[in-house]
Each structure stands twice: as C-alpha cells, then as structure tokens.
Amino acid sequence: MRAVVIEQYGVLPVVQEVPQPEPAPGGVVLKVEATGLCRSDWHGWMGHDPDIVLPHVPGHELAGTIAAVGPGVQGWQVGDRVTTPFICACGVCEQCREGNHQVCPNQLQPGFNYWGSFAEYVALPYASVNLVRLPLELDFDTAAGLGCRFATSFRAVRQVGRVAADENVVIFGCGGVGLSAVMIAAALGARVIAVDTNPEALKLARSYGAADTLQASLETVDEIRDLTGGGAHVTMDALGSNDIVQQALLALRPRGRHLQVGLLPSGVQLDVGRLIGQELQWLGSHGMPAHAYPEMLNLVATGNLKPADLITRTITLEQTPAALAALSTTTPAGVTIINP
C-alpha cells in the first residue's frame, strides 16, 4: 500500500510502498476513505511524542470501510462504514469499565503508538469497544473530521466544560479544534468570542456562530473583559501555547472555567495564587469515547451541528508531506482532509 512515511523527525516525509497491515485478534483493518491533517500529527513529526518509533506513518483522524476482520471480532463485517476515536481503549480496565475510555491506561492511538491513517489501509485494535458505525447519509470526509478535533471539542465544551446557554465563552485558536468548539458552543446557546492571529480563521469563526472575533494582541484580555462585562465564564486554549494560557486565565471572571485541549510540549507556567484566589477551574479534556458518539451524531443528523462546513481543503496523499511541514509556520483556517 501507499503511505506517508516519517524516517527522521522534522525532515520532510515521503510517500512509499509499504506492507499492508493484518488485523490483530479482536481488531480490524480499514480501507482509509478519508483522514484528517491535525496539529497533533505535526507534533509527532517534530518528535514531541515519546511513543513514536521511526520509521513511522502518522494519521489518527479517519473514516473508512472494513477491509479485514481479525479473530474474535463479532458484530462487524467487511464493507461496514465506520470511524473511531483517536484513542482506542482496551475496554476491560477499571477506567474503561467506568466508561472513561478516553483515559484508558492501555490505550493505543493510531499514528502514535503504531502506524496510522496517512495510508491506504490502517489497523484498529479492540474493535468491539472503539468502532462507531456511520449513518449512510454521513460522508467519509465529514466523518474523518469527527474522530479527533470535532469529538474532542464536543466533549470538552459540552461534557467537561459544561457550557450553558448565555455564558460567555472565549475560544483561543481557530484551527480545526477551535472552530469546532466555536460551532458547538454557539449551538448550545453560548455567546462565543473567537481569538486568532489569522483574519481568515476569524472570518470562518463568525460564520460558524461567533458573536465577536478578536485579532490576538497585547490588548486581548482587556477587550474580552470589556465585551463580557468583567470576564468570560469559560475559556479554551485550542492551540497549545503558554502565552495563550496566561491570557485565557486572566480573561476569566471569578469562578470561571478554563479548558485546556491544545498540547503544551514545552510545559506551562501557572499563577496558582490566582487559581486559588479567584476559585478558577483548570479542566483538561482528552478526546471522547466511542460510546459517547450517538449524542453528537444525532445533533449532526438533525442539522444542529454542521461539521462538514468546517472542511476547507481536501488534498491527496502525495500533497500531505508538504501540508504537514507547512504547519511549522502557519495554522490553516478550517479542516484539511486527505483522500488516500
């Protein structure tokens, strides 16, 4: 099969012919119909993830059709249209038994723990726990975008952040995660303020439901306080930046909630005194388990959420290495989907 192969961190990967994967016991192999290009893939390419072993195939947002079924798999067959969370949980540990698959200590992540979906085929473990059947009306490009950015934002905003109608919610960073969060928070009835350096991203944010947009600057915190009458109820770092974290915490009103979704490979400094004195909440959110997908898929089916609108570019496998490298200097507006 054809796949994008990383042979050295930070060096442009190439498309190569590599062996097609075989399904493990309890797992399946998918023919990849669509896969998303995500900043997490860039972190992996740069060597920020200790689980990656070179040579490596990235890619963790995906949708496709089952091409092969491993021993012990029940309820799934070749040809089924499916997607999966980027966190493939074991299904049997304490956290999984309690429904917290997104923090399973035995989790396997395609594109990180093993070869991922920037390829024509990808293996998925623990099929009974992690596969999500796709409605016939949901196309593969849209479904691929759900697996990481949209699902992550849905759980962060609705389930972890508990965003409610009429709350002031500030989203820092309007890439795929941030724009998904804008759309979801607006659909919940919140007043959304989007912050980014990219005017095109801010234009998209407004079209997805942001009431206000702010070009990131040294005055951002003051502007947020003016717009919200004293500070946001909820802030979210959708990019992963120490500077953003500082602004987000300063922009909160007392007893506000901060959602950290963007990765922080270089760490972060926190004003713990402010966290305590203002009774602020720092809330981490990491993906969403397969069993939580039905609520999100129902809202997509009814038109309350329109993740297809987030897709701004589709590219080929051959165009993927350059698009991955471009994330070193810019974050493109919207979601990029790869069609292998």
TrEMBL record:
Domain Enoyl reductase (ER): start-end pairs: 10-338
Keywords for this protein: Metal-binding, Oxidoreductase, Zinc
Family matches, as Pfam families: ADH_N, ADH_zinc_N
Record carries keyword Oxidoreductase: yes
Keyword Transferase listed: no
Gene Ontology molecular function: oxidoreductase activity; zinc ion binding
InterPro entries noted in UniProt: ADH-like_C, ADH-like_N, ADH_Zn_CS, ER, GroES-like_sf, NAD(P)-bd_dom_sf, Zn_alcohol_dh
Annotated SUPFAM superfamilies: GroES-like, NAD(P)-binding Rossmann-fold domains
Cited PROSITE patterns: ADH_ZINC
Cofactor: Zn(2+)
Family: Belongs to the zinc-containing alcohol dehydrogenase family.
Protein name in the entry: Alcohol dehydrogenase
